[in-house]
Design a protein that fits this description.
By secondary structure, the protein is mostly helical. It has helices at about 1-25, 40-60. It has one domain. Helix 1 (about 1-25) packs antiparallel against helix 2.
Length: about 60
């Protein structure tokens, strides 16, 4: 169970950071993405990154 929490936590954290970067216009990849420079994706990315960090903390406490 701990391994699953870690995998999902890392995936969510990285995806959230990617969404934040795209929303802020720092990561302009892929060029056809609808998320580029759309400020709302900074919020959603932050929420997802926090959820991923929470999963990582939960996995650490379960050990």
């Amino acid at each position: 169970m701990t391994l699953i929490l870690r995998v999902f936590g890392i995936a969510a954290l990285l995806m959230g950071l990617l969404w934040m970067g795209q929303g802020a216009g720092l990561i302009m990849w892929p060029a056809s993405s609808f998320m580029l420079e759309q400020k709302v994706w900074i919020l959603w990315g932050g929420v997802l990154a926090l959820a991923g960090a929470g999963l990582l903390v939960l996995a650490q406490r379960r050990q």
